[in-house]
Amino acid sequence: MADYPTSFDRDDLLKCARGELFGPGNAQLPEPPMLMMDRITDVSADGGAHGKGHIIAEFDIRPDLWFFECHFPGNPIMPGCLGLDGLWQLTGFNLGWRGWQGRGYALGVGEVKLTGMVRPDRKMLTYHVDFTKAVQTRRLTMGVADGRVEADGEVIYQVKDMKVALSES
């Protein structure tokens, strides 16, 4: 297990996006505007609902965020796919945080439920990812997790069986 802290601020996340946190060729977050969180408040390899690892992050919602202007004019809503991408980003981050090597790739999701919306008057999203499986073998490095996104404490997105892999190719 690598020796990384269990919380990260925005500067740390930007270092990860540049490949400076986990090293070149390893898990990276996207750069803004696709970086879907402002801070990671907790990460583990053995915590969470299933004892297989978890990660919690926050994203500050501001009315001037890039997607509100275009989705949709006159009816601004954050695209649900961006919330899902934030969950995938965090799943891959957790694998890199464990010290596992390779670039992250989203492989799919078993189930998605969207039960609310993110409008410009919301203040903060909180992401919760709970791993159900994390495997590293000679041939496979993969995390499987369930997740949810809360907007100001209200659950608005839920996913089951997200899959993210790390590949050295």
Automatic annotation (TrEMBL):
One of its GO terms (molecular function) is (3R)-hydroxyacyl-[acyl-carrier-protein] dehydratase activity. InterPro entries: FabA, FabA_FabZ, HotDog_dom_sf. GO terms for cellular component: cytoplasm. Belongs to the thioester dehydratase family. FabA subfamily. One of its GO terms (biological process) is fatty acid biosynthetic process. Homodimer. Pfam families: FabA (PF07977). It is an enzyme of class 4 (lyase). This is 3-hydroxyacyl-[acyl-carrier-protein] dehydratase FabA. Pathway: Lipid metabolism; fatty acid biosynthesis. Keywords: Cytoplasm, Fatty acid biosynthesis, Fatty acid metabolism, Isomerase, Lipid biosynthesis, Lipid metabolism, Lyase. It is found in: Cytoplasm. Its EC number is 4.2.1.59. It catalyses: a (3R)-hydroxyacyl-[ACP] = a (2E)-enoyl-[ACP] + H2O. Its main location: cytoplasm.
